Amino acid sequence: MHADLSLARKLSAGDAEAFRSLVRAQHHRLILLATGFTQSRAIAEEVVQDAWVVVMENIDAYEGRSALSAWIAGIVVNKARARARKEQRMISFEAMADADGPAIAPEKFAADGHWADGMPAWEVVTPERLLGARQLLRKVAEALEGLPPAQRVAVLLRDVEGLEPAEICRQLDISEVNLRVLLHRARNRLREAADEDLRIK
Amino acid sequence: MLTCQSLSDDAAAYMDASLPAPRRLRIKAHLLFCPACRRYLQQLKIAMGLARHAATEPPPPEVEERLVSMFRQARRQDPPG
Ligand SMILES: [Zn+2]
Questions:
Q1: What is the block-wise mean pLDDT of chain B (81 residues), using blocks of 10 residues?
Q2: How far is it, in rounded angstroms, from Cα A169 to Cα A175?
Q3: Which residue of A30, A119, B74, B76 is most buried, as measured by CB atoms within 10 A?
């Protein structure tokens, strides 16, 4: 948090390279986030650009109460919701939490309710391992992009940008139960995407 | 006794520490004797971390340059202090 406040001060002072590093780190995820609302990549790109303009002009309003990435993601959500409503593309996140089948296929469990395969162990994921793990990261990225929009938005806001659950529920207009269902489905899907590469054979 | 299947249903709430105490304790008790579920929860956490790495892809150079030059203009017109 402290590091984020000093980054915000650099932005305030007009440090363009600090802004560039922020754009490099976050722009792509913000596009994925906005697309969950707008259902259109082109509109999402406009939304995220508008949000960056808000960041440039209002960085002094950031008080460090949440991570800077979470603050920026919140601006994108506001812009994306407003735009989706205007274009009548707004989807109901609550309805999407109720849809779909179980998060984990029933055949993954034995008749007694225990894991059918005993949940094979994964190799240890060190930062060094990640450097050479392009295939693994590509699979996880594809899984993330392939999630239904509400699940993608939930996991991006909670697990990637680090917003608090109550704040996410307020922004998406869903209950905490709905949010948990969305996160549960999304996280299981991501775990399954990494399983093949990481499981010790 | 809690099954692995019902533990998995509560996994998201458990990880976000938003589970009522009695259910939380039942999960902890299950984890004590179930290495499979301990691996399951740990793998979910690893997958969440991987999502953070996987979602980081630099923007196209022209997009980056456009945003940076917009930033330079915005902060020039509006000097700090
Ligand atoms: Zn178990």
A1: 91 87 94 96 94 88 96 75 45
A2: 6
A3: A30
Do the Cβ atoms of B55 and A190 come within 8 Å? no
Inter-chain contact A19–B64, Cβ cutoff 8 Å? no
pTM summary value: 0.90
Angle between helices A165-172 and A68-86 (to 10 degrees): 10
DSSP conformational letter for A108: G
Please say whether the beta carbons of A108 and A193 come within 8 A. no
Residue found by looking up tokens 């994306």 in the block: A80
Q: Report how far ligand 1's centroid is from the alpha carbon of A100 (Å).
A: 24
Tell how far the Cα of B25 is from the centroid of ligand 1, in angstroms: 14
Calculate helix-pair angle for B61-77, A16-38, nearest 10 degrees: 120
Q: How far from B54 is each of A155, A178, B34, B48, B50, CA to CA, in Å?
A: 13, 25, 30, 10, 6
In sequence order, the 6+-apart residues with CB closer than 8 A to the CB of A83 are A37, A38, A43, A46, A47
Alpha carbons B75 and B60: distance in angstroms, whole number:
23
The answer to whether A93 and B14 have CB atoms below 8 angstroms apart is no
C-alpha dist (Å) from residue A7 to A15, A68, A156, B37:
9, 9, 22, 40
What's the complex ipTM? 0.87
| A199 bridge partner residues | A122
